[in-house]
Amino acid sequence: MSKLRKSEISTSVIKRLPRYYRFIGELVRQGVVRSSSGELAERMSLTASQIRQDLNCFGGFGQQGYGYNLVELREEIGKILGIDKGYKAVLFGAGNLGKAIASHMNFREYGCSLVGIFDSDLRKENERVANLNVMPISKIEEFFNREQPQIAILCIPKAAAQELADKLISMGIKAFWNFSHYDLKVSHKDIIVENVHLGDSLMTLSYGLTSYYEENDEGKSESCE
Asked: Is the CA virtual torsion 95, 100, 101, 106 positive or negative?
């Protein structure tokens, strides 16, 4: 099957690719060499047809009766995701969240390198985070001219996000990983934004828990004790 153009591939398929990459990586580390779509589906709580359809969007990688070579499949999915590109990322906001992301995120495993950290608080200048010195915003232009990063990670207050984003776009940033709780209204069609709302995720979890209790309490009589 021929590949679809990337513009023809649905967002839902794209969002499943990182899960395939992560899960197949775990199997490879366990020593699993080959797997069928049915075996992958059982492990991942998906359907075999879903996995085949998703991978067929990019040309398909398995052979009937042979299954998938997991090392090769993970490598191909990594290429689709751009993990082999080594994009440069810069983080803005060296508060608790920014420090946690910088210190505990294995950027290289996901195809990026964290090359700089900035904060507007001058008291944090030269503070060491993830083997990088925190820099003041005043040094941003010099740094960007030298490093030419493509990704900006925003761990800054909501009120500052749009102004900074506009500035960064003018300096060449092409993608944002945005933790600022501000949904960036980027008018530039070639800019990619991934808004991360931790509160939304927690509320989704709360909904699932509420639904679970409602369904399991339904029909039960209340205790008189």
From this structure: positive
